[in-house]
Amino acid sequence: MRRIEIGVINPQDEQQALREWAARVDAGEIMPNAESQLSFATYSQLHSALTNKRMELLECVAQHEGMNIRQLAEQIGRDYKNVYDDVQLLIQLGLIEKQGKALFAPYDDINIHKSLRKAA
User: What mean pLDDT is reported for the chain?
Assistant: First the structure.
């Protein structure tokens, strides 16, 4: 099962985590394969990118892989142009893949994570 972790992380915290990871790699430590990740700087950015309609669209793609954008728009009863725009954004985020005109969801699971307290 392919999974992606989507979270809200302060850009400075993310940079620090990347520096620590790079130092461990440079020291020769073998790093386990990490799950795919997508990060946003704020919850509002995450919510703005992953609206309810886009999540519905993503679920539909996962359940009916291989449809094109027009078929997808008809399936969910939305305007073609709006679905087209949403699909393009989800492709940029890596949450939808396109092969020819066919749409596919590369992940079986999406975990959305928001910490309430800073790590100690």
Answer: 86
Spell out the SS3 assignment of 27-91. CCCCCCCCCEEEEECCHHHHHHHCCHHHHHHHHHHHHCCCCCHHHHHHHHCCCHHHHHHHHHHHH
What is the model's pLDDT at position 40?
Answer: 85
Who contacts 46 (Cβ-Cβ below 8 Å, separation ≥6)?
6, 8, 40, 112, 114
- Report the pLDDT averaged over residues 68-91: 97
pTM of the model: 0.77
Check residue 15 and report its DSSP letter: H
